Amino acid sequence: MWLHGILNGRKVRVLGIESTAHTLGIGIAQNYPPYILSNEKSKYEPVLGGIHPREASRNHAEKIGEVLKSALNKANLTIKDIDAIAVALGPGMGPCLRVGATAARALASYYDKKLVPVNHSIAHIEIGNLLSGFEDPLIIYVSGGNTSIVAYGQKRYRVFGETQDIALGNLRDVFAREAGIAPPYIVNGWHALDLCARRSQTKEILDLPYIVKGQDVSYAGLLTSALKKLREGYKLEDICYSVVEISFSMITEVAERGLAHTRKQEVLLTGGVSASQILDEKVKLMAESHGARYYNVPPAYAGDNGAMIAWTGVLAYLSGVSIDPREATIDQRWRIEEVEIPWRN
User: Fold this and answer.
1) pLDDT value at residue 23
2) Mean pLDDT along residues 278-291
């Protein structure tokens, strides 16, 4: 059987470690159904303000033993049953990345396992491909640290458009925090900004920047202007509604351009912001209007998680990708197009 270019032969199991930002995740995946055997995590939740990298890394260092044990128990395996250790080496926050990299190097060296380097952004795409069954989608990747339109071509994932400044998730979190409606950022599966927007009585779009430049978007001006409206006394619910409508329409517009340009027949929405039901509706309508199949990655696998690192580790390991632990250093700005994708050739 072929699966995304990989021939299933000998059963291979890979343990994946994710620690690029606020989430420490450890998952185990294999090249036979059920492909995902476990997906355990510990999330750093600041009481006030945004994510402090040093505090988040301290949480990861304290919890990694517990999460590792939980992932192995959930899969009913021991470390001896694992063929390789995969780890996200970037992009992400330096202190957080170092926790995962240090643990992965230690596990690989002590237990004599292959160490597989994984690009965090590519892992978001590959777990989406696995769950959707898509072979060649246009990808809309939206999270707290990334906002991009991506498609595969000539042995690599290519960025067709991206934010020129802050990410969509960053815009949403910062505005919600400055407006005093977060943390917590997520309540019953809804982001605080979306909940605020739903309470708008007027549903009026305020005069805020809508910045699309070719295939790229810019959210910094929208954030600054929205906070200015707040200080000027505009109703909070109306500002929330406007920020949600404008920001989601911008990314949907550039995705539609990407779809027309690449002529893909599938659209994959992934990343932490994909949990927004409002964005899901907009992108689904756009994809269906072009006759394209659409899939939104479920929240358990759309946000940062260890299973996506483990699954991408399976694909890479079976393609001969591994690294000497002494050379497995982190790269906070590891871009998606820098990575060759041998399992799709």
Assistant:
1) 94
2) 97
d(CA 198, CA 237): 8
3-class DSSP state of 179: coil
Q: What are phi and psi of 48, to 5 degrees?
A: -135, 150
pLDDT number for residue 260: 95
**How crowded is residue 146: how many other Cβ atoms within 10 Å of its Cβ?**
23
Residue identified by tokens 């072009």 is: 290
| Tokens of residue 72, six digits | 């192995």
The CA-atom distances, in angstroms, between 274 and each of 88, 89, 305 are 21, 23, 14
Residue whose structure tokens are 């990575």: 339
Which pairs count as long-range contacts for 279-283, CB under 8 Å and 24+ apart, including other chains? 279/142, 279/248, 279/251, 279/252, 282/248, 282/249, 282/252, 283/140, 283/252, 283/255
List, in sequence order, every beta strand (DSSP E) within the chain.
2-3, 6-7, 13-18, 23-30, 36-43, 84-90, 114-119, 138-142, 147-153, 156-162, 186-187, 190-191, 212-213, 216-217, 266-270, 293-296
Q: Provide the pLDDT for residue 182.
A: 87
Task: Sort strands 147-153 and 138-142 into parallel, antiparallel or unpaired.
Answer: antiparallel
The residues with which 295 forms a beta bridge, in sequence order, are: 268
What letter represents residue 57's amino acid?
A: S
- For the chain, the distance separating the N- and C-terminal CA atoms, rounded to the nearest angstrom, is 16
Please check the confidence at residue 327 and state whether its pLDDT lies above 90.
yes
Per-residue pLDDT tens over the stretch 156-177: 999 999 999 999 999 999 999 9
Contact call for residues 164 and 212 (beta carbons, < 8 A): no
Question: How much is the average pLDDT of 255-275?
Answer: 96
Task: State pLDDT tens for residues 290-323.
Answer: 999 999 999 999 999 999 999 999 999 999 999 9
Do 63 and 344 touch, CB atoms closer than 8 A? Answer: no
Residues 6+ apart with CB under 8 A from 228: none
Q: Which of 137, 176, 175, 177 is nearest to 270 (CA)?
A: 137
